[in-house]
Amino acid sequence: MNTSSAPSTIRDVARLAGVSVATVSRYLNQSAPLSEPTAERVRRAMDQLHFTPHPVARNLATRRTHTIGVVLNDVGGDFFAPLLDGVLSGIESLNYNLLIIATRPDLRANPAILGPMYTDGLLVFWDSLEKADLDALIQSGHPCVLIHQSPPPGAKIPLVTIENKAATRRLIDHLVEVHHRRRILFLRGPAGNEDSQWREAGYREALAAHSIAYDPRLVLKGGFDRFISQKAMQDLIESSLDFDAVFTGDDEAAIGALQALKLAGIRVPEDVSVVGFDDQSLAPFLSPSLTTVHAPTDQVGRMAARQLLRLINGEETEPEILLPTELVIRNSCGCPLPVSD
Amino acid sequence: MNTSSAPSTIRDVARLAGVSVATVSRYLNQSAPLSEPTAERVRRAMDQLHFTPHPVARNLATRRTHTIGVVLNDVGGDFFAPLLDGVLSGIESLNYNLLIIATRPDLRANPAILGPMYTDGLLVFWDSLEKADLDALIQSGHPCVLIHQSPPPGAKIPLVTIENKAATRRLIDHLVEVHHRRRILFLRGPAGNEDSQWREAGYREALAAHSIAYDPRLVLKGGFDRFISQKAMQDLIESSLDFDAVFTGDDEAAIGALQALKLAGIRVPEDVSVVGFDDQSLAPFLSPSLTTVHAPTDQVGRMAARQLLRLINGEETEPEILLPTELVIRNSCGCPLPVSD
DNA sequence: TGCTATGATGTAACCGGTTACAGAAAACGG
DNA sequence: CCGTTTTCTGTAACCGGTTACATCATAGCA
Predict the structure, then answer these.
(1) What's the pLDDT at B341?
(2) Please, are residues B246 and B184 in contact by the beta-carbon 8 Å criterion?
(3) Among all strands, which nt has the closest C1' to B14 (CA)?
(4) CA distance B213 to chain A (A)
């Protein structure tokens, strides 16, 4: 009946059970053995009062927040949902909370929120922090795990990312070997993006392996962005440079590339093969359906969360986790429709 | 050079400035006037010590968390990213933090985390809480705003959602008036989904307005899900019931419907018009591009966040915000390609 | 000049937990 | 049977802020 009374505290419980607050606390945390009769009385008192320990008070006393932060710049992007889904499944039922820390190119994060008072550790996604902020964070020693971005040299910060180079190699090999493409465009990602750098390395390796000369005119800025890549493709088409395939760097850029080709009346895949990277959720529904490389973004999130928890608990962590990627053949490369999908 | 020393506290600042902790606190919160010389000394001491007030201690003392929670079941779904993006922009620079509370059909939320100790208020998305948990939350009086779901009768909880019925009416009107469709399928959303109910009402209203008899055989379960809707469409096609258009309930179901039609060799939009709802990010890239209704999901997030903040601050709130939706004509209804896109 | 209103600051209790330390009782070993 | 260890429990300090109340100058006023 005392529904709307003030929530009860550990002292209320102690009083009702006829024990000290320390005893109640020990019961809560199993931090010391209690005699069975005492435990029973505490238990009784607790549920008679509907007692729930106050997390903030506990956080203050233990100097742990039981919260991990995810630092991201690109909320709303296609990476966001699967990544967070993975992170959540990584901390599931471990009594950890998830705090979203959104940064923007124009909006630096409040430095304090990166500090140890808000979270027990941070998951830092590529491009979410200015270099200075990242360095300061690393210096501070606050646990963090980087996602899709290597730590600065010397820093021993775990990294979780995906395998880019070998997968790209297989992707380009497929274009050359199966579809006999030899003039293959590459749309670079944003400056400084490591995924893009590795993909470019895979691209060049594949060309070299097939004795195809590297032509710098075939490498454009796609920015992992549909509009930038559409513009880049349009410009290239106007320049009437010859090409028979496009590796768009990522799926997002593939959207723009497909659009540009369509508007120019160039048929995909008959005239030009198009392949992407990431296997975003819309890849199967583009037209033609997009041949790409599956990036296990949810797993990246899950693994990163696990690494961070290990770090927080002082356990051993892997310095680097490279998750495997997988070629996904659909139609935009020129392969026929599968029987069903 | 004392870089790695323990972080300084308000008492350290007080000592260095030669004032009491209360004075420092007053400076921090502007909660009482300070003489300029005192203020100056506090300021000096603060940045000499790089002092940052400890948020958890502050939360404990003020019994506010400066955090709002978003309760969601469908992390990873297409709603998630834009919604959160909107929420973040709604709380931007207001010193509020965002906690993600993910529930799953199989995993009930820890009841405590819905309580007032973790957050100052909650944004509750449709279907994220069991009825009992929602009722308990509302009973508790903890501030909350519902998203895409009306409160139980009698409860005075603000609601933020979108206009469904009139938009659906316009959508179906378009099919009938422009494309002369009269046998229009409707794929219902999940049971209990209010959006779906309103869309169905709009659908029926449009039929009635054009004197088209309502045929219950044309209403199927699409579940707002690509697989469910694909299956439903396939079954319907096999039953060889006649139809010339499909309103898929949402865009997600449109994916499945398009797939089923394609596999059956039925041409869209020549043989059958297909229209969706939501205007998810992939809608323009389906083939043919999807005629749909734009749902301003990011705005829903922003508005809901704002309402919640008002509620938390004891200001007046709107009982219900219905955000306008807008018809987006593309090609899947049968309209020609726009000049550019 | 003496008395009160005002403004600035300090003291100490409080938010609600955890935990170091101490003490008492029970178990153990010789 | 007594000293030592072990097991359980209590006392009180502590985490790092906020704030009600008290205090003390100083300004204002008659």
Answers:
(1) 45
(2) yes
(3) C10
(4) 34
- Cβ-Cβ pairs closer than 8 A, A with B, add up to 116
Six token digits for residue A168: 């790209």
- Within 7 Å of a protein beta carbon, the nucleotides of strand C are 7-20
Question: Which among B81, B102, B107 has the least Cβ separation from residue A80?
Answer: B81
**Residues of chain B contacting residue A139, judged by C-beta atoms under 8 Å apart:** 3
The CA angle B277-B283-B284, to the nearest 5 degrees, is: 135
Question: Mean pLDDT for each 10-residue chunk of chain B (341 residues)?
Answer: 68 95 95 92 95 96 95 84 93 86 79 91 94 93 96 95 98 98 97 97 98 97 95 96 97 96 96 97 91 97 97 94 98 82 45
Query: Cβ distance A220 to A241 under 8 Å?
Result: no
- The residue whose two tokens read 């049971």 is B191
CA A267, distance to chain mean position in Å, is 34
pLDDT tens column, A128-170: 999 999 999 999 999 999 999 999 999 999 999 999 999 999 9
Structure tokens at B218: 């044309």
Query: Cβ–Cβ of A88/B102 closer than 8 Å?
Result: yes
Residue length of chain B:
341
Chain-chain contact of B84 with A75 (C-beta, under 8 angstroms): yes
Residues 59-98 of A, Cβ under 7 A from nucleic strand D:
60-61, 63
Shortest CA–C1' contact from B29: which nucleotide?
D18
Chain A CB contacts of B78 under 8 Å are 81, 281
Instruction: Give the global pTM.
Output: 0.92
| Protein footprint of strand C, defined by Cβ closer than 7 Å to any strand atom | A 6-7, 9-11, 21-22, 25-26, 28-29, 31, 51-54, 57-58, 60-62; B 18-23, 26, 32-35, 37-39, 57, 60-61, 63
- In the numeric block, which tokens belong to residue B234? 């396939």
- What is the SS3 assignment for chain B? CCCCCCCCCHHHHHHHHCCCHHHHHHHHHCCCCCCHHHHHHHHHHHHHCCCCCCHHHHHHHHCCCCEEEEEECCCCCCCHHHHHHHHHHHHCCCCCEEEEEECECCECCCHHHHCCCCCCEEEEECCCCCHHHHHHHHHHCCCEEEECCCCCCCCCCCEEEECCHHHHHHHHHHHHHCCCCCCEEEEECCCCCHHHHHHHHHHHHHHHHCCCCCCHHHEEECCCCHHHHHHHHHHHHHCCCCCCEEECCCHHHHHHHHHHHHHCCCCCCCCCEEECCECCCCHHHCCCCCEEEECCHHHHHHHHHHHHHHHHCCCCCCCEEEECCEEECCCCCCCCCCCCC
* Chain centroid, CA B210 distance in Å: 33
Find the mean pLDDT for residues A176-192: 97
CB–CB contact B115 A52 (8 Å): yes
Q: Give me B253's structure tokens.
A: 């179901």
CB A113 within 8 A of CB A130: no
Q: What is the pLDDT of residues A75-133, one digit of tens each?
A: 877 888 999 999 999 997 678 999 999 988 777 777 789 999 999 999 999 999 999 99
Comparing every residue's Cα with the C1' atom of nucleotide C9, the nearest one is B23
